[in-house]
Model the fold of this input.
Amino acid sequence: MSANDQHTHHTQLERAQKANDALAETRKARWYPHVHIAATAGWINDPNGLSFFNGRYQAYFQHHPYGSQWGPMHWGHVSSTDMVHWQRHPIALAPSIEADRDGVFSGSAVEGPDGLLYAFYTGHRWRNGNNEDDGNLQVQCLAVSQDGCSFEKRGTVIDCPEGISHFRDPKVWYQEGRWWMVVGVSSLEQRGEVWLYASSNLTEWRFERVLFQAPEPSVFMLECPDMFPLGDKWVLLYCPMGLAKTGFEGRNGHNAGYVVGDWAPGQAFTPLTSFRPLDWGHQFYAPQTFETPDGRRAMFGWMGAFNMALPPQAEDGWCGQLTVPRELRLGSDLHLYNLPIAEFSQLRTRTLDLGALILEANQTRVIVEECQPCEIALTIDLDHSSAERIGLWIGQPNGSDGVLIAYDDQTQRVVVDRGSAQLGDRGYRAAPCASEGKLELRILIDTSSVEVFINNGHASITSFVFPVEGQRSALLRAESGNATIDSVVVHSLSSIWR
Ligand code: FRU
Done:
């Protein structure tokens, strides 16, 4: 990068940081998260550049520092020594060169053999300089850093292929002596595809092959592809744009999921499964993974939406948060499990073990009067329960405003039902679960979100929820039948911010 370009980048970063600091002065806390990464103020979307570098976990995210709406994208930055407690850093990347004139879009980061952090991102331009009406001009760019905080831009490493309008979100990994990159593409025929590139030096990249095409003709673009091994299989994560709703699936404006297959360098990717949701909630998108130093596959997703305003967006000066970090595991049936990383339990401060409980038909039982951010673990004995719905109500004890997280015996699913929430979008989401035996629910409740992990991560539901502002309680509830609950444990959680 020329001295001039470097200067422009610095100026843009300083300007953005100043504007963001000013916005943070007026940010309202009422719905602001306690155990989730969000920007001090302003908008965030996808997790980017997840890595362990310079002795710390580095997490960047799509960020509009000037307001709580999506806008010209920057990379916000936080880091951590333990993936539990996080420290904020100044904005890491801002639009500053012609190639990223209208946005520093999503991407990933790896440590190079020279000990530098190589961040690959999509340089975004509107072809008409204004909006998407005449298409996008998207190229893959590189920026390098010695410390993970300040970056030097190296410009475009992969140009936009002729006639292509969606070409973004590079995810890079190292395998058998070479670097590999997957990129999400909308083909000339408007089909959603993942393209594979390879490099021996992280700078010169060669197109290898179309790695994958979504089978659904309506799917015109695959955003945020990620590709990684679990055991001897490969998991391909992606976010299909244009997916149709079918029953309980594809319900969101933005849906994220995976296929599992076989792959080796130089070979085609052979899918062994169909596309499956990775999470069943209202807000789970753009997941990105990385390998921890001890070899686990960790993932963050984005909780938010482009198509629907969230209550804090208009008035509170912030919007969007990342999920808690989760570990992914592959079952022998090629099912992808996800659970909070083991370290997450370090946030537990006080534990209340309520033991076993029986609820009579239509009974409710307060378990926490004043429910602060916490984790609640329930084991429900389905074989000895007759209720139509058994679960946890977060909200007013009288049942007027709140959300219900429950096992629903009619659909034989776990539901997050926001039908009585004080604010925000309504509706419910439902994840599959076994309808016999013991049902284990691990529920993370933050100020404006829930993440529900079902049967040891076999399924999860991630949703923004606005049950009631201010004081809220947690109650157990059995509807139209009794409930046998083997155990109820409540852990209070401390803040993630250092
Ligand atoms: C996904 C996405 C990416 C893009 C980024 C822009 O949420 O649309 O495809 O790089 O967000 O902010």
The mean pLDDT is 97.
